[in-house]
Amino acid sequence: MVLFTRLPRFSATALSMSLLALALSPSALQQSARASSTTSYEVTATAYNSLAAQGQGDPTLTAWGVQLEPGMRVIAVSRDLIEEGLTKGVKVRIEGLPGTYAVADKMHRRWENKIDIYMGTDVAAARQWGKKQVTIEVLGPGKQPSSDE
Description:
Elements: H1 12-23, H2 26-36, E1 39-48, E2 74-77, H3 79-83, E3 90-94, E4 100-106, E5 114-118, H4 123-129, E6 132-141
Parallel strand pairs: 1-5, 2-4
Antiparallel strand pairs: 1-6, 2-5, 3-4, 3-6
């Protein structure tokens, strides 16, 4: 006498998904996960300079101890964005600006959902930027901000 074991039935969708998962390499799965986990925020963006009239103490030293130099692509972020993970060194892309920027400074507690873009000593550029609503895309942690980025 031959006994038959009944195998569980899989729906066509479940079976297709299982086969697809097996076909993808681990690196492809990691890339797919990274691509879908991109975080972006709609924020108010203003600009600032490293001038004594625009801050307290040494205007070239951020609250996180980064020494500012004209040409650096860095931003200050409001405290609520820090709580969201935009901490020192995190890289972002800013709508309307080329390249990437690193978080290097934090803003006064009174500000929410805001970034301040460092523009060296170029007051005219900061005034031209003004105040805008932009989307920032978080790219992830980076190295210590420097002037050659």
